[in-house]
Amino acid sequence: MKHTDIKEVLTNKELIGQEVTVCGWVRTSRNSKNVAFIELNDGTSLKNVQIVVDKSGDPDYKDIPRVGTSLRVTGKAVEGRSAAEIGVTPADITVLGECPQDYPLQKKGHTLEFLRTMPHLRGRTNTFNAVLRVRSVLAQALHNYFRERNYVYVNTPLITGSDCEGAGEMFQVTTIGYSQDYKSEEEYYAADFFGKRAGLSVSGQLEGEMAAMAMGKIYTFGPSFRAENSNTPKHLAEFWHIEPEVAFAELPDVIEIAEDMIKHVIRTVLDTCPDEMAFFDAHFEKGLIARLEELISHDFGIVSYTEAIELLKNSGEKFVYPVEWGCDLQTEHERYIAEKVFKKAVFVTDYPKEIKSFYMKQNPDGKTVAAVDLLVPGVGEIIGGSEREYDYDKLITAMKERNMNLDLYSDYLDLRKYGSVPHGGFGLGFERLVMYVTGVQNIRDVILFPRTVGSIR
Ligand code: 4AD
């Protein structure tokens, strides 16, 4: 259907005075004696175009399209009070799809909780219009960031036989149900589709490392799955994961890449999405734009885990989870460090080896690993990464300490036999980045179809 994007009509001055055809959904409509006004949105812009219907030649025209109706409209683009408008007569309006009175988005101002009950329609609200565009711009900015720096984009498998994080959070992939007829778990898995246990990948890192050992600098951008029973505002069962992996990179290099990448994509969103960012600043977090400008114009903080524990212990705060060296940092701790101590994004490095994954490079102190998490105010952790253990014997020892089945990781171990090099990378949770950039506080509201524990449709 030949038509012009509403964004074009609103921004391209050359269209003024010309006849244009636009399509979209009615956001509001208002009727008066000689003229009717329809606000039309097609998703290409946060702003609507105003259709001004001249009824003078058709005074009986009463069927002003209801909110939600889809239309095709042809008329002259004219300069309006603040933006271009389209002047039409009733004959220039074609109704593509009627929208009855029970349309749930009839009125404005629904809560985010209410909108979650209608993922198929909530894209038509201003909030989701803005979220989905910022998401899209962020994704493209990430791809551009890596492409411009000679990274190769690789696709790693979603179905996997090995557990990257080893935290028991894998969804199982199976075509047969377990039955008592199997004498053992092994027999059951052997009878299953792949002939062994398979699951949905929690991370593309292990395969990403394999690609990086050939292509030098790679990144993945795809879904990861976590069967964590975490019903929180920042956990999804299916989230989008960006994982760069870089050969010849040590922990300081990994930190530098993460900071540079975050600054680059935030700059891009601020420059590309001024309307959307102004909307979030007005409706979700006052001062959001100033906060992001501030963030990208200063160095991020950096603190070791051991120093962070001291800061938390000396804070005088009452935390729900007690703080001791060796404990995992909870969201309340992460937010205290980022929001109260540093008041900005901060890298926490060198965590105790017991609370981190087997693949992380062991530090000379024998107690910590070269890990790094990036914590940001308002959200907590958005990035987790490390330098990888590239010494074959040390890696085997760490895996044995965790009772891991080495057979499942033979390809991964081979990398340490054939031309092993120092390397590292990180994982960025895409939805957490979107939360941080938009000020939206629940992860269910930055992805159109969230999958969380106990909830799918
Ligand atoms: O810290 P994580 O578990 O690290 C890894 O998966 C590494 N293999 C990454 C790497 O080094 N290549 O996860 C990385 C990031 C977290 O910082 C968080 O932003 C996001 O993934 N994440 C989640 N986001 C939404 N819902 C969940 N359940 C998430 N779990 C992790």
Mean pLDDT: 95
Along the chain, the helix and strand elements come as HEEEEEEHHEEHEHEEHHHEHHEEEHHEH
* Beginning-to-end CA distance, first to last residue: 31 Å
Q: Biggest sheet: strands side by side, in what order?
A: 7-10-11-16-15-14-13-12
Determine the structural class based on helices, strands and strand pairing: alpha+beta
Question: Helix content range of the residues, please?
Answer: 25-40%
Major β-sheet profile: 8 strands, mixed
Strand content: 15-25%
Count of alpha/pi helices: 13
- List the domain count as a whole number: 3
CATH topology-level fold name of the largest domain: BirA Bifunctional Protein, domain 2
CATH superfamily of the largest domain: Bira Bifunctional Protein, Domain 2
The unreliable regions are none
CATH class of the largest domain, named Alpha Beta
Distinct small molecules bound, one entry per kind: 4-amino-1,4-dioxobutan-2-aminium adenosine-5'-monophosphate
Give structural notes.
By secondary structure, the protein is an alpha+beta fold. It folds into 3 domains: 6-103, OB fold (Dihydrolipoamide Acetyltransferase, E2P), CATH 2.40.50.140; 122-167 and 202-445, Bira Bifunctional Protein, Domain 2 (BirA Bifunctional Protein, domain 2, 2-Layer Sandwich); 169-201, no CATH class. The protein has 13 helices and 16 strands. It has helices at residues 6-11, 112-116, 126-148, 185-191, 205-215, 251-272, 274-283, 288-296, 305-313, 331-342, 392-401, 410-415, 430-438, and strands at 19-31, 35-41, 49-54, 70-79, 84-88, 93-97, 152-153, 159-160, 199-200, 217-225, 238-247, 301-304, 346-352, 368-376, 380-387, 423-429. Strands 7-10-11-16-15-14-13-12 form an 8-stranded mixed beta sheet. Helix 3 (126-148) crosses helix 7 (274-283), helix 3 (126-148) crosses helix 13 and helix 6 crosses helix 8 (288-296). The two termini are 31 Å apart. Residues 164-165, 203, 205, 226, 228, 235-236, 239, 241, 243, 381-386, 425-427, 429, 431-432 line the site of 4-amino-1,4-dioxobutan-2-aminium adenosine-5'-monophosphate.
